[in-house]
Design brief:
Layout: H1 3-6, E1 17-19, E2 22-24, E3 28-30, E4 33-34, H2 46-54, E5 60-67, H3 84-99, E6 103-109, E7 127-128, E8 137-140, E9 143-146, E10 151-152, H4 158-174, E11 179-184, H5 189-194, H6 209-212, H7 214-227, E12 232-236, H8 251-262, E13 269-273, H9 290-295, E14 299-303, H10 308-316, E15 322-325, H11 327-331, H12 335-341, E16 391-392
Parallel strand pairs: 3-5, 3-15, 5-6, 6-11, 7-10, 11-12, 12-13, 13-14, 14-15
Antiparallel strand pairs: 1-2, 4-16, 8-9
Helix pairs in contact: 2-3, 4-7
């Protein structure tokens, strides 16, 4: 970053903001990050409560992708929110976050074709809008395995998918969440319907932009009816190629129309991945993502590759309302305090991103006890044998 941007003028990044029904202590958001630390049955674990509570100086935390049903699962040891034991376990986590004065939304997740039969009930094929096999992998209890060719959903099955979202939203409120984020990004089920590269249907859910957006809008309507206005956000990734989500034929047209239609539901925020997920922020073909921000009536959360300098720049130039940090939050539980103080940051241990125990999860040092003479952690321990490289929710 340039010296001019680093030496930014005063900012409101660390000041309170109203997000829907929630009063946030600052404009910093912890982005959803899949860590695969839940039990095999999708029940959140006590160490997850510690992990989230450590990071609760963020104005808003958005949980890792949380399965809305057994069918929606594409990664081993990811949490669910479709049964009583999961709801009860989440209650401990939301209580720990609230005790620190922060707010938390749960990210509602159905992976669609980014799965494997070993993760599906009865070894069934994953489902998708169309039977197109992705060049991608799913994380199973045996490690990463190539995704299989999914089964195309029958039109008559789609109301059942919407009901899964409706039930998950109801369970989220019972679990103490302040709201929910509908995951419509990163090549998962809803985005598979949105993009003409992955949706080859000829029914009411395929073809035109209006048809391809139908599932997202029907899900949003169902979830908003449960949670109420101001307690629902949406995550989109208009140009990200992650999970073999081929570029839409006209992303500006498709996503502009989607955002315009989403305004009918009085959502709390639009959470946008700017560029390629965990990759370049560059957007090809002159598509200015600020078009989507200007079209949206709620607050705009910017995501992808942000550091302090870029976040300050975004606020000073009114390019975003809130800034989501992902990988920096893995290694820096007290990220807000470090950013405010201009302190050095811990370096994340990539070997422990995805799966494993407390090492690389809840044992990163806080600012007060960190070695401020270095941006590196103390000598890292060996990564757990089950650990593999991680990915964004």
């Amino acid at each position: 970053m340039s010296d001019e941007r680093s030496a930014a003028t005063p900012t409101d990044l660390f000041e309170p903001v109203q997000l829907g029904r929630c009063s946030l202590s600052n404009r910093i958001v912890m982005a959803p990050l899949t860590r695969s630390r839940a039990n095999a049955d999708g029940t959140p674990t006590p160490m997850m409560a510690k992990y989230y509570a450590q990071r609760a100086s963020a104005g808003l935390l958005i949980t890792e992708g949380t399965n809305i049903s057994p069918q929606g699962r594409g990664y081993a040891y990811t949490p669910g929110i479709y049964d009583t034991s999961q709801i009860n376990a989440w209650l401990a986590i939301t209580a720990a976050i609230h005790a620190k004065g922060s707010r938390v939304f749960v990210q509602l997740w159905h992976v669609g074709r980014i799965s494997h039969p070993s993760l599906q009930p009865g070894g069934a094929l994953p489902v998708a809008p169309s039977a197109i096999r992705p060049e991608a992998t799913a994380y199973t209890s045996a490690g990463f395995q190539l995704c299989t060719t999914p089964r195309a959903l029958e039109t008559a099955e789609i109301p059942g998918i919407i009901e899964q979202y409706r039930g998950a939203a109801r369970n989220a409120l019972a679990a103490g969440f302040d709201g929910v984020e509908i995951h419509a990004a990163n090549g998962y089920l809803i985005e598979q319907f949105l993009r003409d590269s992955t949706n080859k249907r000829r029914d009411a859910y395929g073809g035109s932009v209006e048809n391809r957006a139908r599932l997202l809008l029907e899900v949003t309507e169902a979830v908003a009816a449960i949670c109420g206005a101001g307690r629902v956000g949406i995550r989109l990734s208009p140009v990200s190629p992650v999970n073999d989500s081929g570029r839409d034929g006209d992303p500006e047209k498709t996503y502009s129309r989607v955002v315009e239609q989403l305004n009918a539901y009085n959502l709390a925020y639009l959470h946008l991945i700017e560029g390629a997920t965990q990759g370049s922020r560059e957007v090809a073909d002159g598509f200015d993502l600020q078009i989507l921000r200007r079209a949206f009536n709620g607050l705009y959360i910017a995501n992808n590759g942000y550091d302090l300098a870029l976040a300050l720049h975004a606020r000073q130039h009114k390019l975003a309302d809130l800034i989501a940090f992902g990988r920096l939050y893995i290694a820096n539980p007290d990220l807000v305090e470090r950013l405010r103080a201009g302190a050095p940051l811990n370096v994340p241990d990539r070997a422990t991103f995805f799966g494993g125990g407390t090492h690389g999860y809840t044992d990163y040092p806080f600012y007060a006890s960190a070695d401020l003479g270095s941006t590196e952690m103390a000598e890292p321990q060996a990564a757990p044998k089950s650990s593999v490289a991680g990915r964004r929710s």
